[in-house]
């Protein structure tokens, strides 16, 4: 049994992340930011802090980086705006909070935690979520904060492609891509933490999909689909094609397999990612941490930005499929 008294696992999105699509300098930037984020969260756990504090601290660091499709690095909608989602859940008491479609919140993960801790609700959306933020003293920022030239340029390329195909009556499908690499990437950041008191917490923040329309909302703010935590089983954060994760309730499915089937974390994650999702033609991955400190980081794409740090401070970090075994739970 791979057991830790506490532990921390994070991801920065899955997709066709291959060595040939990522320069050495950009790879170094991703590794540095993942290391910074996981170290900050681990430090909180090491000092006896809560899993929730570790999760929100870590995700806020990733949200502030333009490297990831979340927060500052969020992609653009069809209309040229940025619409952000986030969710967080505690394994103790199954308390949860989420926001969707917000445009003026610098760190959506913090607002999701505010919804969980200081409202009677679980999920707030759009303007209403921002009114709640103001009432709770959370500063609203100008939407221009989220502008990044590379991602804006990529939207313009897609809009041009749409215009070139205007003779077709079919609505162009929204595209999941990251302009920093040459192929598809499912952009989300997330983490799962187990603290010294045995409490699990999970959180997830996405920037949506490039060229999405009609205020589309993905799986990440849907508790059970993109995020789930239960002290009796495990915590999970997902990244991928959200429509498939919603249909499968992927995050909860992993937990349910531990609870009702008696599966190990490793077996549950493998079945969900490589069988159930694949059967629906769903692409992506997830990270998970169970109540005993076992960890899994698995995906059915070419890569996933990911890192794990155990209670001794040993760091395991990877981007590509060949980096290391995705299952560490034995």
Q: How would you explain this protein's 3D organization?
A:
By secondary structure, the chain is of the alpha+beta class. The chain has 8 helices and 13 strands. It has helices spanning 24-46, 51-63, 108-118, 126-135, 149-164, 242-248, 250-261, 265-279, and strands spanning 7-15, 84-90, 96-102, 123-125, 185-186, 188-194, 200-206, 227-229, 234-240, 284-290, 295-299, 303-309, 315-320. A hairpin with a 4-residue loop joins strand 8 (227-229) and strand 9 (234-240). Helix 1 packs antiparallel against helix 2 (51-63), helix 2 runs antiparallel to helix 3 (108-118) and helix 7 packs across helix 8. It starts with 6 loop residues before the first strand and ends in a 10-residue tail after the last strand.
């Amino acid at each position: 049994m791979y057991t830790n008294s506490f532990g921390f696992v994070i991801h920065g999105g899955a997709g066709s992340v291959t060595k040939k699509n990522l320069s050495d300098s950009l790879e170094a930037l991703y590794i540095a930011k993942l290391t910074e984020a996981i170290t900050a969260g681990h430090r909180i756990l090491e000092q006896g802090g809560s899993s929730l504090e570790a999760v929100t601290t870590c995700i806020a660091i990733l949200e502030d980086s333009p490297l990831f499709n979340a927060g500052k690095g969020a992609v653009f909608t069809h209309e040229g705006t940025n619409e952000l989602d986030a969710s967080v859940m505690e394994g103790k008491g199954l308390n949860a909070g989420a926001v969707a479609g917000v445009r003026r919140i610098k760190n959506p993960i913090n607002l999701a935690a505010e919804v969980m801790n200081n409202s009677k609700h679980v999920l707030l959306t759009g303007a209403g979520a921002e009114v709640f933020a103001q009432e709770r003293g959370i500063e609203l920022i100008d939407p221009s904060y989220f502008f990044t030239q590379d991602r804006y340029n990529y939207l313009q390329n897609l809009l041009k492609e749409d215009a070139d195909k205007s003779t077709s009556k079919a609505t162009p499908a929204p595209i999941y891509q990251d302009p920093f690499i040459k192929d598809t990437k499912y952009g989300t950041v997330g983490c799962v933490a187990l603290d010294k008191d045995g409490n699990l917490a999970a959180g997830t923040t996405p920037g949506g999909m490039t060229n999405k329309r009609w205020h589309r909302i993905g799986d990440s703010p849907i508790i059970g689909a993109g995020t789930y935590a239960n002290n009796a089983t495990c915590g999970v954060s997902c990244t991928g094609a959200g429509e498939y994760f919603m249909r499968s309730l992927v995050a909860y499915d992993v937990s349910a397999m531990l609870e009702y089937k008696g599966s190990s974390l490793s077996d549950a994650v493998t079945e969900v990612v490589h069988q159930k999702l694949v059967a629906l033609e769903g692409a992506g991955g997830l990270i998970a941490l169970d109540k005993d400190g076992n960890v899994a980081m698995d995906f059915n794409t070419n890569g996933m930005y990911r890192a794990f740090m155990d209670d001794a401070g040993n760091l395991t970090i990877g981007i590509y499929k060949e980096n290391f075994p995705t299952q560490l739970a034995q």
